[in-house]
Amino acid sequence: MSTPGPVPGAKHNPAMTIFEKIARREIPADIVYEEEDFLVIRDINPQAPVHVLMFPKKVIPRVGEAEAADAGVLGRMLAASGAIARKLGVYESGYRLVINHGPDAGETVPHLHIHLLGKRSFAWPPG
Ligand code: AMP
Description:
Elements: H1 18-23, E1 31-34, E2 38-42, E3 50-56, H2 71-88, E4 95-98, E5 114-118
Antiparallel strand pairs: 1-2, 2-3, 3-5, 4-5
Adenosine monophosphate (AMP) binds at residues 18, 29, 41, 43-45, 53, 100, 106-109.
C-alpha cells in the first residue's frame, strides 16, 4: 500500500461521481485497501457476504471508454485482486470479478469499478 489521501487536482465539482467524492474524502466509505491511484471500498448494498468495489481515483466512466493510458491502473487493480481476496478471506474459496458497462449490464455509477464478490457460490452463466 502506498500514499493514501485525496486525489490532487480539481476544485469541488457537484457533478463528481460518488466514487470521486469518496476518493476525495468528501463522503465516507468503508475503505479496505488503497493505492496511490485506486481505492477498494465495501459496497453499500452488498450482493454477497464479501462485496467490495475497486475503482481508479481518476474517473474513467466505463470500461469500454478506457484508453491506452489507463492500462496501468487497470492492470494494477487486477493484479491487486489476489491480495485483496486474501485479506478478505476469499482467496481459497474463490471470488468473482465483475465490471458492468452500460444499461444491459446494470451499470449505475458512471465511474469504472470492479466488483469483487465472494463467500458464496455464483451461478454461471450469470443471471
Ligand atoms: P454498478 O451497478 O456496477 O454501477 O455498481 C455500482 C455499485 O456501487 C452498486 O453495487 C452500489 O451498491 C454501489 N454503491 C453506490 N453508492 C455507494 C456508496 N456510497 N458506497 C459504497 N458503494 C456504493
